[in-house]
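Anyone? Bumping this.
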Amino acid sequence: MRRSLRAATVAVLALLGGVATPARAADDPLVVGVVLPMSGDNATFGQESWNGLQIAAKELEGKDPSFAFKLVLSDEQSKREQVAPQTKQLIENNGASIVVGSVASSNTMQAAVVCKEAGIPLLTPASTNDKLTAETEKYGEDVFRVCFKDSFQGTMLGRFAWKTLHAKKAVALVDKGQAYSVGLSEQFTREFTALGGKVETEYYTSADKDYTTLVQKVGGMKPEVILISGYYPQAGPMIKLSKDAWKGVPIIGGDGLDSPDLLPLAGETDAQVYFTSHFVASDEDPVVQGFVKKYQEAYAGADPGAMAALGYDAMYAVYEAAKKARAAAGGGKPTPKQLSAALRGLEFTGVTGKIVIGPDRTPRKAVVIVKASGAFQFFEKIQPE
Amino acid sequence: MSPRLRLLLQALPALALGYVVVRMLVGDVGGGTTLLDYLSIGVTQGAIYAFVALGYTMVYGIIRLINFAHGEFFMAGAFAGYFVLRDAGIERWALPQPWPVLLAYLAALLAAALVAGTLALVAEAACYRPIRKAGRVAALLTAVGLSLLLQNLARQWPAIGPTQRPWPAPRMWAAADEVPSPADAHYYELKTFTSPTGERVEREKPVVFKGATMTPAVRQRLAAEGGRNVFRKGELSRTVVDRSIVLMLAAAAVGLWFLVQRTRTGKAMRAVSEDMAAARLMGVNVDRVIAATFFLGAFLAGLGGVAYCAKYGQVDPLTGFMPGLKAFIAAVLGGIGSIPGAVVGGLFLGVSENLFAAEVSTEWKDVLAFVLLVVVLLLKPTGLMGRPYREKV
């Protein structure tokens, strides 16, 4: 209730022309356009990311008064067709020098096309689809991320299913309408079959809410592990419906499951659910715990999810890049080109680990395996080799 | 077609349906992968379609209007049920299972039906009545507009908002000293936090994990903090939900039959549906009959809304869209304007969709519904149970 109230307020404010972090002294702040799903299907993704960004922004205001910036938020409502016009607006009307967003890969791709045309760098906190940085003809050379890619996440999922869960036969549930879902399951299938496993694929659409038949059918295929390749609004109800049909079969997924709504949607269940993510609040790492504490203070005891941590890191990436670009530009406000150049090879330590943006404009970083049972529990952290 | 063959064609599906329903009521079906399981899934889903299709068909029967806003009455009902369950019902009462849950659900269903019905009354009086003489196209466009308006009002209204919410699960409260070794469930604590802006926010925080052992330290802490706030989450079992949906549909169908065939209002409805002008001349209050029809249809849609959301576990402003569309197809399949047709159409669509998904392809399931619609309209334009349309001169 409270959360939705806040979301609604944010949405209304966003409609009225953006929520701004007040800039200090400088009259020409660096405008950071933020496009996120604050409402609709993937609302918790946008809300958490924005919370993370704001915590970082507030911190930076106190830490470095010479860094004048302004965040302008636009709510894309989890709708693909909203992303391009809103991104355009951020760039043309608000004068954004860099765009941060969005979460669902298919939506970020829309933003990337607009940014490419405008020559503005795009930094996505959480879109993991490989194509975003690989298909430069479509999405340009200036797409960066602070998260890992699905080729890494999918591979780790495949290994986890094979080595830790000792599964030989998997069923992957795929939503063909989501680039993330398709990409993640492809990578998983590649790794899992290379190790000697067998994968069968079934399809669902996010327009549907009734997965009963799908769930029974998959249960009847007698898999040893089930991959739900997609996002929490679909994964939650599937887990809820699967209580009998998937009894004892572990369920795995990617970071699309990392939402505070996943467990309430799934209900009280015996299911063993594991997913790969960037961060988990129950990680005992002191850096993580420091962030958890800040987040809980700012948001009335809520635990941050991975999206919050990535939002925080994305803000720091913008800051570090701006600092680097400013040094290169001789102290003035950096141009989009200078920011883009500064993001290449950027190095800093974030709450989701050490971030070194490599030649593929993606950092190489650790993947966390989260066990979702009653709460998100830290299971394992795998460093990239 | 010989009468005997026709009787056989009607009796066979009815017998099959009866068999599936009886098996659903006496045993645990729907959890496996046999034909019977898929049939029972189809029947449950079809029953929800039927709830919504009844409203479509009744309104069409009486004023020849396809009320596209009907899916939004369904959504309004679902939200009414959600608020009752969340604020007055199973998330608040510290009572033992299962009677409070049952009572809360009855209250939620009643609230849902009344809210949806009232909304339909308002919509009818404000939008449809003024343009009733303007022709069917104007009414149809109004219906589409009203549907979009209600969806977007719900999105903008802060109490509802644009985001989907998990359906309330029963909280089963326990005192800290009663928390057993948690082999069977997770235990949560309800904590109140104050945000920097002064809002008070309630949150569930897990305190004891399933399979973990209860340490003396945790027990002590819970006791010290007044463990009255400790609870575990309950669930409605699938079989209970499925059975209730089917029984509710049966009760609604019988009630509706009685109302239409055996009461004065029903007689008036039939009269208006037959010939509105003549009915008016005979002293029937046409406006009241039409309003009653809208109310009844939306009443059923509200029930369907709670059933649907309780089964699939979430609610949002677009909840009514898909079921509304499918129910429209079901109503046309069954023969729009025919009350038994709506039930038959709903069940037929639910069963064929799920059998298709199970045996052929989950990916093409939604395509099937529309293909069925086209095929039935080609072969039998009046639908499965529809009477041939008599053009009035």
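Late reply, but here is one note on the structure posted above: The first strand of chain B starts at residue 165 and ends at 166.
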